Amino acid sequence: MMRYLHIYAWLVRNSLIREMSFKANFLLWTLVELLWFLGQILFIDVLFSHIERIGDWSKWEVVALVGTHQVISQVSQAFFYNNLTQLPELVRTGKLDLLLTLPIDAQFAVSLKHFGFDNLFNSFLGLGFVGYALCQLEVSWDAWRFLAYSCAVLIGVSVHYSVLFGLSLMCFWMTRAQGIVYAYFNLFNIGRYPVNVFQGGFRWFFCWIVPVILVANVPTRFLTQSVPGSGVIDGGLGPLCIGALLCLAATRMLWKHALRRYSSASS
Amino acid sequence: MKAVYRKVFGIGLQDTFVYRWNFLIRSLSGVVPLLGTVLLWKSVCAANNQVSDYSFSAMVCYFVGVLVVENLASPTEDEWRIASEIREGQISAILIKPISYLGYRLTLFLSYRFLYTIVTLPVVALVLWFLSEHIQWPEQWWTWFFFGMALIGSALIQFFIAYSLAMLAFWFLEVSTLIFILYSFEYFFGGRVFPLDLLSPRIQSVLQWTPFPYELFFPVQVFLERATGAALIRGFGFQWLWVGITAAVARFLWSKGLKRYQAAGG
To answer: Do A196 and B43 touch (CB under 8 A)?
Structure first.
């Protein structure tokens, strides 16, 4: 474990050096993410200029939800996005060989090689919006809210990771797998809406099988609910934990299975 | 159509066929946000009956319309491919042939769109069938004609913008950030996320001077017969003005860029 932390510290250091040698690019990527986030806020603003509530969610609760979605997705993208979206290219060209021969777990190497600092900035921005929304909502600031929130956010990050990893593993079966990036964004697109918008089989599937709906909803509920501590389990933390663990286990198995198929092109 | 462009069209088809699984994954996963949007508006309209002058069915129609226009008219990979051809010096192979690069790319774009539409047709048909109780087909036959024209205008604007952005690869090594920045404007102000007439009239009156509303919002409005009379004429005026402007920018950037071209790797 210590060894992996030590290795990761070096990887982050390298990423920072690389990032700083392309400063303009770094700033532009930050701007890209910023624009997309502000677009979402604009949508909420437009929507709530015509209506009062979505289900029992008020405007600032939805802002907190979208902010939380931003925090979770940006943190997971900072750690994993650049690495996992590179996987299809590594497989196609056979460059994966190099990572497989390293004396560390190959899934670790494939998932965490590069750290995206531009995403980190944008997750702080999301956090800022969550904080502002909380001030508007006038909720009580007690420790457990933030403890439960942080836990749920971390579990959410692991769901993001498994979904993106699972999708990029498709590249072992299809040579050109650029479509996976769209699939990832499309799936998590619905995570920004309040959970009670969804019904029937759609809700069941995206709460229990691929829990993308719960990812941002559960932590937001912890922040905005009026009675602290109520409904920690039926509030969705239970299903979210189980879902996250199952997704992680499933993608680990899929990864092992995929590696057996790997034919190492070009070498 | 000259024989050479017919050939290019065929090459485009073959080339795109490699991506068929990508198209399918992309359009299948695209159903998820569409259903999410539909459910969101369902819940919103259940409580408020009507949002601005959209009923729930009208809203569903709008987003299905966006899906159709996007499938038919929005470039998917063109800008990335053009940029990488410039960066890697592959355009040299086209430069020495008696063919215009813009014409070559436009033909490829058309054949990509053609194949993409065919591959994703089952998904779109499924969506149409699933939501059929809400879909309102045009009452007047000429709406189809106007819709076709708005669609062509939309495809041309989007293609010329994508092409112009890719031309920046003559000056910058890395253009993907620029592509994404403009794409975010196209996404939100094109009407992809919400119908633009939900915006305040002041913002709308500014937006109508930009090319974005004519990419998705306007063609869908034409199809839903929400843009009629003077609004229709004004819409077409602006749309084809932007077709002209973006085409001119595309040609200008190409001729400027070519002077800087160093044929790297060629």
So the answer is: yes
Contact call for B200 and A49, based on CB within 8 A: yes
Beta bridge partners of B51: B54
ipTM above 0.90, yes or no: no
Cα torsion for B169, B173, B177, B181, to the nearest 10°? -30
DSSP A180: H
Put simply, the answer to whether A197 touches B18 (Cβ < 8 Å) is no
Query: Residue B181: which pLDDT band, with cuts at 50, 70 and 90?
Result: very high
Cα–Cα distance, A139 to B214 (Å, whole number):
43
Q: Which of B47, B181, B193 sits opposite A31 (nearest CB)?
A: B181
What angle is formed at CA A76 by the lines to CA B176 and CA A43, rounded to 5 degrees? 65
Cβ of B33 and A189 within 8 Å?
yes
Which of B17, B26, B54 is the best residue to mutate to test the A interface, defined by the most A CB atoms within 10 Å of its own CB? B26
Across B89-100, b (16+ Cβ under 10 Å) vs e yields ebbeeeeeeebe
The alpha-carbon radius of gyration of chain B (Å, integer) is: 20
A56 neighbors A101 (Cβ within 8 angstroms) = no
> Which is higher by pLDDT, B24 or B55?
B55
Does the pTM of the predicted model rise above 0.90? no
pLDDT digits (tens, 9 = 90+) for A142-177: 788 888 889 899 999 999 999 999 888 888 887 666
Tens digits of residue pLDDT in B226-263:
988 899 999 999 999 999 999 999 999 999 988 888 77
CB A83 within 8 A of CB A110: yes
Which two structure tokens, joined as six digits, stand for A147?
């403890």
The C-alpha atoms of residue A99 and residue A111 are separated, in whole angstroms, by: 11
